[in-house]
Specification:
alpha/beta; seven-stranded mixed sheet; three-stranded antiparallel sheet; 38% helix
Length: 367
């Protein structure tokens, strides 16, 4: 039976023995040493597309050193971070909106476009965590299935535009499929639709590709906004940091929905991000492992007659249609946190890419 993303997140979260207590109980009982997490080092997390190598050592060192500034509103960190982000994205600070994770930005943009209600268009399956908020705020929607190649169907999205359409969401590479639309495909799409419709391109996984971000186009197309995250490549899923790139007027409008823009980001997180951006050795290690683990995983699936599609991210989308055993039970019994079923037709699911050792263990379990 298919379950929605929020229910799945809750189930997967509770599936880890380290999280059997409530958050308050956990931190009250295990304040300094996190011994409960250490006891759970047998669990392999292949469900959230997390960085299997954790956070950059240089970032962790910077975060530890920055703890002494935790009592201060230190805007220098924010300025330095914005300058670095502007540099790597070939844009200006005025084009940036930094927040505690890109999911928060998806929510913020949703609230902005829904001020006078309206209509939004999303692909399915995709990372549409903001969908319930848009519906709660009174927006209608069109859900567009992927095409037969498991690609986001831009033509059908275009044909679904209504008079009150305000937002079209494109996750690229798409989550959970890992499929990548080219820059030209997306740019041609933006050119073909009314410029009063915001095109939100979620580039959470773009660093795992060699494709250039669309960030340099936000001043060319005023209705384009790009979101990025530190959760994947940089390993900041728990530290929470993301940013949006858009034309300055749109960024100013979004900031009006915040009581204090950027204040939700801790000094510790910002210090770590500044250091993490420069840790090329760690970044190269993560990217190298991801490619090796991806090639290995696809090869092993092929040996077992399991259908996959090409991935441009740190996960693989595959079909359980030809798998005869109880896949999810095997994972559970082996303390592996896997994914969920996204498309009942074909029984498609997703597995995050861990270290080579973790992926070898994974295939030992499902064989």
């Amino acid at each position: 039976m298919s379950i929605n993303r929020r229910d799945w997140l809750k189930t997967a979260f509770l599936g880890s023995a380290a999280l059997t207590l409530s958050p308050l109980e956990f931190f009250a009982k295990e304040p300094p040493n996190f011994t409960l997490l250490k006891k759970d080092n047998e669990t392999i997390r292949l469900c959230f597309n997390e960085n299997p190598f954790g956070t950059s050592p240089k970032a962790l060192e910077a975060m530890q050193n920055s703890l002494r500034f935790s009592s201060l509103y230190d805007f220098k960190f924010a300025d330095v971070l914005s300058e670095k982000l502007a540099e790597i994205n070939q844009t200006k600070k005025e084009n940036l909106l930094v927040s505690a994770g890109s999911s928060f930005l998806l929510e913020l943009i949703t609230k902005y476009v829904s001020i006078n209600k309206g209509h939004f268009i999303i692909p399915d399956p995709s990372f549409t965590i903001f969908e319930p908020i848009a519906e709660f705020l009174g927006m209608s929607k069109s859900v567009i299935p992927l095409n037969d190649k498991k690609k986001i169907d831009l033509e059908k999205m275009k044909s679904s535009i209504q008079k009150d359409t305000k937002l079209i969401y494109i996750c690229n590479p798409n989550n959970p499929t890992g499929d990548l639309l080219s820059r030209q495909e997306i740019e041609n799409f933006i050119k073909s639709i009314p410029d009063n419709i915001i095109v939100l391109v979620d580039e959470a996984y773009i660093e795992f590709t060699t494709q250039k971000s669309l960030s340099d186009l936000v001043d060319v197309y005023k209705n384009l906004i790009v979101t990025r995250t530190f959760s994947k490549l940089y390993g900041f899923a728990g530290a929470r940091l993301g940013y949006a790139i858009g034309n300055p007027k749109l960024i100013v409008e979004l900031k009006k929905l915040q009581s204090w823009s950027g204040a939700e980001i801790s000094v510790v997180t910002m210090a770590g991000a500044i250091a993490g951006i420069d840790d090329k050795e760690f970044i190269n290690k993560v990217l190298d492992n991801n490619q090796k683990a991806k090639d290995f995983t696809i090869s092993e699936f092929n040996k077992r007659g399991i259908k996959t599609i090409p991935s441009s991210a740190n996960f693989i989308y595959f079909s359980l249609e030809n798998y005869k055993d109880d896949y999810f039970k095997k994972l559970k019994d082996a303390k592996i946190l896997g994914g969920k079923t996204y498309e009942q037709k074909g029984k498609w699911t997703r597995i995050s890419l861990g270290t080579m050792e973790q992926m070898q263990k994974y295939f030992e379990v499902i064989s």
